[in-house]
């Protein structure tokens, strides 16, 4: 049987997936509609759900392939009927999507959302005082607006001012056409940029009984999408590739790195009447690039620190990527030897991006070192979601992304349909290594897709659920 | 453009992948090849003899589950228990048997995890059976 060594089988593996995807993508660039991390992943952020970034996605927009779409979700496990105060973004908080185009592990561009609450009528307990047919309707009692800024070394540019957040979906009596409200929240920010903030169906699909001693102690508790029926709050942004690429040249410099972060007031003073006075200085409390890193790679004693850390300092977390825990758990239960370490294959996927000069997975895919104008001397390994924007979207995405033959998918960015649980489990068990064999390629949690259909246009996420989760 | 390199590598690999798929398809016939199982007494003394019943039991179990979509709790328990006993015998095995034994233990692990994870593939049982045959050959031959 297979004894997996540290030698990569990616030359064949990636190759086998690559061309089919590329060819299909070039042949058909039509919009595609598909028929779904980091929820509560660290002790402190579990107590601050409004700041808890659950998932980050980045992909070439299928219906506007000259742009990239970013989606960041917050506030996990929203039960649709969780009123009367439903689910809102936090005020005095910076919700950032960070872009690193030169690979120095520092943001070259920050897209920042800042939110403001307005309650129209303070003398009612209702979130809405009547039917809400439009975002501007006075019957929407709780209104949240936002400013979206683009921050670079050259300064701050406001892209959206007073954008309206799509409200929480209260129910069919209150919001008979919620899809319309959600679509109204899409803002054209000019220069080809679109923005959205609001509630949506949680696109992440997984069986979270993984935390029950690894799926019931023997991986037998699988096949149930734990996230089904729950909502999240979504920030979505669509930006022309040119505005993201190093030196504005997406042809010479097609690779970008992405991570999201949230930063809250450093201090909060609670007055006797429960008024909260928050300081203006912000401190980072959540961070997310590649899915599942802080959830299952970083140990619990380091998770809060990871959430406060910067990619440029990721060297201190290197050992957890090189020597991951999951394969050891599998070895204990199934006596399947964990692949030999140090796991440079995982380091390449998670910390450098994939390129011939990056490590054992010798394929040029998605490291910023591939950017022709990048200063390779300043490159610093760091945990980011990396996307090669030059790879066109696939007409029929494979849920296993690159491992399944589809270079337009995870870990080259991440689409809503990518099954990151299965891919990550297979990667942890050595699917990228020489001799991985058929056995490892089929591993997964038996949850292969989201139940809700994604929209075929921006912001792509499915509209939020209205049915109670405990209603079968 | 470096991206072209990706596609060139990919093109070569696609061909390799297709060849591999053809090979796999030929080997993917139903069931397991016929076999006259030796008696347990034919296994050499020592580690071989102590694992004989489990090796032979695995042969029967493989035939039973090769085409199954799921396996019973009793069969899962049997797999687990046979794997545990074979794994225990690794400590006393001589050098010649060490790798075949380890391969057998690992291959049983893959069958277990794939059945439990609802992503079973008959190829995995076939691989377990090949590992069992390889070990058995050393023990009986």
Describe the structure.
The complex is a heterodimer of chains A (472) and B (141). Chain A has 472 residues and is an alpha+beta fold. Chain A has one domain. Chain A has ten helices and 14 strands. In chain A, the strands form three sheets. In chain A, strands 3, 4, 5, 6, 10, 13 and 14 form a seven-stranded antiparallel sheet that branches. In chain A, strands 1-2-9-8-7 form a five-stranded antiparallel sheet, with no helix packed on it. Chain A has a two-stranded antiparallel sheet with strand order 11-12. The longest helix of chain A has 18 residues. The radius of gyration of chain A is 22 Å and the shape is globular. Chain A starts with 9 loop residues before the first helix and ends in a 31-residue tail after the last helix. About 7% of the residues of chain A have low confidence. Chain B is mainly α and 141 residues long. Chain B contains five helices and no strands. The N terminus of chain B is likely disordered. Chain B has two domains: 30 residues; 106 residues, Up-down Bundle (Four Helix Bundle (Hemerythrin (Met), subunit A)), CATH 1.20.120. Chain B starts with a helix and ends with a helix. The chains are: A alpha+beta (472), B mainly alpha (141). Chains A and B meet through helix 1, helix 3, helix 7 and helix 10 of A and helix 1, helix 4 and helix 5 of B.
């Amino acid at each position: 049987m297979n004894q997996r060594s540290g030698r990569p089988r990616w030359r064949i593996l990636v190759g086998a997936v690559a061309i089919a995807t590329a060819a299909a993508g070039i042949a058909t660039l039509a919009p595609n509609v598909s028929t779904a991390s980091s929820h509560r992943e660290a002790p402190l952020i579990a107590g601050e759900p409004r700041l808890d970034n659950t998932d980050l996605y980045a992909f070439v927009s299928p219906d506007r392939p000259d742009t990239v779409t970013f989606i960041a979700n917050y506030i996990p496990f929203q039960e649709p009927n969780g009123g009367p105060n439903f689910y809102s973004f936090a005020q005095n908080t910076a919700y950032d999507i960070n872009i690193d185009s030169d690979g120095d592990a520092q943001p070259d561009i920050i897209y920042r959302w800042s939110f403001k609450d307005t309650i129209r009528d303070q003398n009612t307990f209702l979130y809405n005082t009547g039917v809400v047919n439009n975002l501007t309707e006075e019957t929407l009692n709780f209104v949240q607006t936002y400013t979206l800024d683009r921050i670079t070394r050259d300064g701050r540019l406001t892209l959206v001012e007073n954008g309206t957040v799509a409200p929480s979906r209260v129910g069919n009596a209150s919001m008979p056409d919620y899809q319309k409200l959600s679509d109204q929240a899409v803002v054209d920010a000019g220069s080809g940029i679109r923005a959205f903030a609001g509630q949506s169906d949680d696109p992440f699909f997984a069986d979270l009984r993984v935390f029950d001693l690894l799926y019931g102690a023997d991986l037998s508790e699988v096949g149930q999408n734990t996230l089904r029926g729950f909502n999240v709050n979504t920030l979505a942004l669509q930006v022309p590739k040119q505005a993201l690429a190093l030196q504005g040249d997406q042809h010479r410099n097609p690779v970008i790195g992405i991570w999201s972060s949230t930063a809250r007031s450093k201090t909060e003073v609670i007055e006797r009447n429960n008024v909260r006075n928050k300081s203006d200085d912000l401190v980072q409390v959540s961070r997310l690039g590649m899915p599942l890193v802080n959830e299952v790679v970083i140990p619990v004693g380091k998770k809060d620190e990871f959430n406060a850390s910067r990619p440029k300092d990721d060297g201190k977390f290197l050992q957890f990527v090189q020597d991951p825990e999951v394969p050891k758990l599998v070895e204990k239960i199934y006596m399947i030897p964990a692949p030999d370490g140090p796991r440079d294959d995982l380091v390449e996927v998670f910390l450098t991006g994939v390129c011939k000069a990056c490590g054992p997975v010798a394929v040029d895919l998605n490291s910023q070192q591939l950017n022709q104008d990048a200063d390779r001397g300043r490159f610093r390994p760091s945990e980011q979601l990396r996307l090669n924007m030059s790879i066109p979207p696939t007409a029929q995405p494979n849920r296993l992304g690159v491992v399944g033959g589809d270079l337009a998918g995870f870990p080259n960015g991440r689409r809503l349909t990518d099954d990151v649980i299965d891919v990550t489990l297979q990667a942890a068990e050595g699917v990228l290594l020489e001799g991985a064999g058929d056995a490892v390629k089929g591993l997964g949690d038996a949850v292969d897709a989201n139940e809700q259909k994604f929209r075929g246009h921006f912001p792509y996420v499915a509209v939020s659920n209205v049915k109670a989760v405990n209603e079968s | 453009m470096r991206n072209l390199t990706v596609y060139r590598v990919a093109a070569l690999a696609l061909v390799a992948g297709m060849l591999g798929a053809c090979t796999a398809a030929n080997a993917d016939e139903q069931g397991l090849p016929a076999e006259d199982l030796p008696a347990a007494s034919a296994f050499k003394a020592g580690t071989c003899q102590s694992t004989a019943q489990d090796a032979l039991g695995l042969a029967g179990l493989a035939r039973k589950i090769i085409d199954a979509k799921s396996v019973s709790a009793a069969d899962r328990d049997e797999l687990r228990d046979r794997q545990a006993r074979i794994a225990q015998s690794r400590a006393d095995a001589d050098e010649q048997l060490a790798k075949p034994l380890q391969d057998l233990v690992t291959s049983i692990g893959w069958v277990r995890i794939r059945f439990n994870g609802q992503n079973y593939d008959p190829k995995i049982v076939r691989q377990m059976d090949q590992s069992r045959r390889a070990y058995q050959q050393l023990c009986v031959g």
